[in-house]
């Protein structure tokens, strides 16, 4: 299945002719597309939109693209945003890049150029989602540990040997070995290095002694 199918390109622009042109280009390239004639239209549905990316005109009647961008970021929306700019808007687009926009493209632009930027934005969004899924899975695994397994995990990450863990927790070395094996199994870690890498991404505080 084409990985494009689980993403959508959201075009926010008051220029109907440009929207129609982009829809034709993107759909003919196998992308899903939705269009919005104003910032307000997109803002009304942004909490429930299909993941993907946003093509956003800088200047529009009513709420500008930059204002929409700031509101989306304030709401925690992390969809990659590509600004559509006129020549005089480039400095504003550059400022938006500094604030976290994905990229910008200046009108008039070619089909190949806009497709290249969109593919990059969609790739970024897929990678972000994969990172979030992985983080959620690691959090779930940590949450499945018993209190004792959690204590053993902290000490493993602190570099303690089994004997040191046994002494600190007041249990036998054999019991530590059992807990250690269960921790590795529940965390689905094939090595200590993998265990540490996973915890660093999600719960770095567990690395503190």
UniProtKB/TrEMBL annotation:
GO MF term (any one): DNA binding
PROSITE patterns noted in UniProt: HTH_LUXR_1, HTH_LUXR_2, RESPONSE_REGULATORY
Keywords: DNA-binding, Phosphoprotein, Transcription, Transcription regulation, Two-component regulatory system
Entry-linked SUPFAM superfamilies: C-terminal effector domain of the bipartite response regulators, CheY-like
Top-rank taxon, per record: Bacteria
The keyword Cell inner membrane belongs to this UniProt entry's keyword annotation: no
GO process terms (BP): phosphorelay signal transduction system; regulation of DNA-templated transcription
Coiled-coil ranges from the UniProt annotation: none
InterPro entries associated with the record: CheY-like_superfamily, Sig_transdc_resp-reg_C-effctor, Sig_transdc_resp-reg_receiver, Tscrpt_reg_LuxR_C, WH-like_DNA-bd_sf
PANTHER family: DNA-BINDING TRANSCRIPTIONAL ACTIVATOR DEVR_DOSR (PTHR44688)
Protein name per the record: DNA-binding response regulator
Organism: Pseudazoarcus pumilus
């Amino acid at each position: 299945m084409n990985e494009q199918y689980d993403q959508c390109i959201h075009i926010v622009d008051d220029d109907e002719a440009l929207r129609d042109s982009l829809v034709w280009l993107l759909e003919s390239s196998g992308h899903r597309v939705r269009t919005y004639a104003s910032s307000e239209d997109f803002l009304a549905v942004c909490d429930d939109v299909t993941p993907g990316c946003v093509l956003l005109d800088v200047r529009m009647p009513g709420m500008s693209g930059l204002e929409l961008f700031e509101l989306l970021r304030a709401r925690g929306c992390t969809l990659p945003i590509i600004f559509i700019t006129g020549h005089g808007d480039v400095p504003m687009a550059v400022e938006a890049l500094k604030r976290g926009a994905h990229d910008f493209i200046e009108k008039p632009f070619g089909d190949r150029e806009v497709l290249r930027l969109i593919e990059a934005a969609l790739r970024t969004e897929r990678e972000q989602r994969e990172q979030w899924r992985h983080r959620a899975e690691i959090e779930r695994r940590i949450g499945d540990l018993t209190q004792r397994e959690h204590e053993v995990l902290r000490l493993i990450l602190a570099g303690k040997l089994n004997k040191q863990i046994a002494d600190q927790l007041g249990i036998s070395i054999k019991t530590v070995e059992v807990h250690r094996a269960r921790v590795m199994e529940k965390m689905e870690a094939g090595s200590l290095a993998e265990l540490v890498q996973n915890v660093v991404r999600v719960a770095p505080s567990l690395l503190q002694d």
